[in-house]
Write a structure and sequence with these properties.
This protein starts with a helix and ends with a helix. 80% of the residues lie in helices and 0% in strands. With 64 residues, it is an all-alpha fold.
Length: 64
């Protein structure tokens, strides 16, 4: 696999995660009655992990 294809995969993964994040935010803002039964610290940890992975893919794409 060439470097260009590998870099493109990182960009596509970042964009897919960004779209999912935006869709989730729109859904969550339009449905405030929805909630998680998990503690907020766990939910925030999952959100933070998601952001870290998403930006990791972006940095891997930008690093050439």
């Amino acid at each position: 696999m060439t470097n260009k294809r590998r870099e493109r995969k990182y960009l596509l993964a970042f964009l897919a995660m960004l779209v999912v994040m935006i869709a989730f935010l729109v859904y969550a803002l339009n449905n405030p009655q929805g909630s998680f039964s998990a503690p907020l610290s766990l939910v925030y940890g999952v959100y933070l992990l998601y952001l870290i992975i998403m930006f990791y893919f972006l940095f891997k794409f930008l690093k050439k």
